Amino acid sequence: MDTIQDQGRYGFQHLGVNPSGAMDIFSSRLANSLLGNDLLTPVIEMHFPAPEILFEQPAIICITGADLSPVINQKSIPINQPVLVNRNTLLKFERLRSGARCYLSILHGLKLEKWLDSYSTNLKAQAGGWQGRKLQKGDNLFFNNEFEFSSLIGNNDFISLKWSANGFDERPGNELRFIKGNEWDWLKDDSADLLCEKFLITKDSDRMAYRLNGKDLKAKKGQLISSAVTFGTMQLLPNGQMIILMADHQTTGGYPRIGHLISADLPILAQLVPGDKISFRPVDLGTAETEMIEQANYLQHLQTTCKFKIENLYANL
Amino acid sequence: MNEKQLHSLSPLGDSAILINFGNAIDETINKRVLALFELLKQSAIKGVRDIVPAYCSLVIHYDPLIKKVTNNITAFEFYSQQINHLLNSENQLTIKSSRSVKVPVCYSTKYALDITNIATERKIPVDEIIQLHCAGKYRVYMIGFLPGFAYMGEVDERIAMPRLSQPRLRIEAGSVGIADKQTGIYPVASPGGWQIIGKTPLSIFNKDAEDPIFFQPGDEVQFYSITEDEFENY
Questions:
Q1: Which of A12, A13, A179 comes nearest B13 by C-beta?
Q2: B2-60: pLDDT as tens digits
Q3: Which site from A132, A298, B12, B222 is most exposed, i.e. has the minimal number of CB atoms within 10 Å?
Q4: Residues in B 79-138 with any Cβ partner in A closer than 8 A
């Protein structure tokens, strides 16, 4: 499944319009940072098997997130590094090496229309992104800018530009940090202790939610009167299992919110796949915010630097 | 009534604040929730991204990065202070008067997939089910689940039906359903477990409209019955 996503649609959750947006907020912003794009520029989120994309015009692109072994005209291209691609070249993804989803960003972005202030695809509303749906075979997307790079690229299929960054952070042991939720106290004491054990990500996991399978967690109470939830909310189902709400989550829910993953760790989860195992560790709000600020500062600084590099590139054409 | 005892603020993760007003489906509580919703909208606190009222709670989604890292306070504390200030400054939570909305519904069995079963199970003639559903004035307590799905209440005990044990894979947009004491309309086609008693010709969700969502939290809704002909020519 491949969709256009930005950093999410906000301001309409009171009307039941869920925010959507990129699953891995870090990698999607990284793709933009490395091109010096505005961090809110929409990107293409892709899953394996990923599409074949024919570039009819030259462009500078950047791929981040999962490593799907991208090739242009059969030759490997790097990820987490901008690449200048020539006209009439074919981008393919050969196999899934690591991660779950990758992001493709184009210098200056794609020609798209906003819906309710955002470019993100909302599949339930069939709105936003590209005609409100998944990308499909035969779609023609257009660049915001036309590029003229012939002096630079000559007859090459592509040229990798000279700067790069580290990709998303894989965490050994997949220990994810969370803030205790409003219904944390509903958990029985011995159940609270079980969160540091391993939970399996099941195959019923998608952009809406990750369903986990682990030891049964026991709650003192069951249903909650419906209340708002957020990306990363850990809900406890009546059967004792947990789900973690992801980018396409509903705006409200009626299951106890035992915790919320910290924003800085959501990208790690977004790059895990069914069969992977995770565990949880509670942290305080201060830690969560410090980590988030660090990530944001890093990406902002990178974006500024890369914008300058791109301007230099143009100056030397 | 002591305002200060009626709400509590707590973090909903690292980017949102939950304000609880109690734990009940109750019109008075919901009115307070929506009054705070209006007040927060008007005060347009910088960095607030979304304000989501529900039956008896309200969540404020904020951008934690707006706050400069000063004074050693967390973004949660930073926003909580402003919200508490609003709550305490007694420019008072004014209860906005409800908007009245009339909604046509065709209760023909062509659309009312479950109405015959309800009639059998509750031993009430279909006509009376329609009458009971149309007699009530319903409050939109909250919108959630799907874009524009309004949770309205409360329906007459006699027609308060539980959700289907086996949800349908597809319910058409416009279908009017009942789940316990709530009634609601599917704004888009969706899987769902509410018992379907009719269908409205109105667009409850229209992505191309200036206001894509038909309902607003706090609306007062009344249904009226239309024939199949009226439905088709609506």
A1: A179
A2: 444 467 899 999 999 999 998 889 999 999 999 999 999 998 899 999 999 999 999 99
A3: B222
A4: none
